[in-house]
Write a structure and sequence with these properties.
CATH topology of the largest domain: Rossmann fold
Strand content: 5-15%
Bound molecules: magnesium ion
Order of helices and strands: EHHHHHEHEHHEHEEH
Number of domains: 2
CATH architecture of the largest domain: 3-Layer(aba) Sandwich
Oligomer: single chain
Number of strands: 6
Distance between the termini: 16 Å
Length: 238
């Protein structure tokens, strides 16, 4: 990051923040663990906790394929349940499991404890958008159920567009929803290097990596934070 007497594009204050949802503002792991256990038990599984890592292994390459545009969210959802049931030797209908899983994901888990205070601190000062590679049905249920839609001027969900972060077409949709803000005064905050950071960098906006695991900072990231309260200072240039 360059330090000069004047404000650079990488330093705040910013006018617009694009927030990732899962693992950034929203405790997706909590939602996933509860929802996964419910579905596995309904499929006749007796040890959901032991199967959760298997499920993660099954879905990881599917999400990577989705980021590459090789499959859509509904295909991903079906494929991960077909893969899990197969790996676990469970005789249940993958389509039914996939459907109940989406239903539960929207209603379980919750915002991280620091997320709402951060949104409250920024709301009204900065324009906020939610940009997620999530599934439309899950995201809209979740926004209603946990009452946080009011923070965002626009909510961009990849499954509604057919393109996902890091694609420029995804960011085009976000910028359209925000009436084409100045890229030099826009920042993306997210936990994913491959979707949020790579996408933001490719689109020419400032990047802020939410890195609660405190992994080493790679090249090409403008800002890195370990906690959500730090985001406010980065965004407001404090
Ligand atoms: Mg994320």
């Amino acid at each position: 990051m360059t330090t000069t007497a004047t404000t650079t594009s990488a330093n705040g204050p910013f006018d617009v923040v694009l927030f990732d949802s899962d693992h950034t503002l929203f405790d997706f792991d909590g939602s996933k663990a509860i929802s996964f256990a419910r579905v596995v038990e309904s499929a006749g599984g007796t040890d959901p906790a032991a199967l959760l890592p298997v499920f993660s292994d099954v879905e990881r390459p599917l999400w990577a394929a989705l980021e590459r545009g090789e499959l859509n969210h509904l295909e991903l959802n079906y494929a991960r349940w077909a893969g899990l049931l197969d790996a676990a030797g469970l005789d249940a209908d993958p389509a039914a499991c996939a459907d109940s899983y989406l239903d539960s994901l929207g209603r379980t888990g919750g915002l991280f404890p620091d997320a709402r205070p951060l949104l409250d601190a920024l709301h009204g000062k900065v324009r906020l958008a939610l940009v997620t590679n999530g599934i439309s049905r899950v995201m809209h249920t979740r926004l209603d159920h946990f009452e946080w839609a009011q923070y965002f001027e626009t909510v961009v969900v990849s499954s509604e567009l057919g393109v996902a972060k890091p694609s420029a077409a995804f960011f085009d949709a976000a910028f359209e929803g925000l009436d084409q803000p100045d890229r030099s005064r826009t920042i993306i905050v997210g936990d994913s290097l491959t979707s949020d950071m790579a996408g933001g960098r490719g689109y020419g906006i400032t990047t802020c990596w939410f890195n609660p695991q405190q992994a080493p900072q790679p090249e090409g990231i403008d800002h890195m934070v370990h906690t959500l309260p730090e985001v406010a200072a980065v965004v407001l240039g404090a």
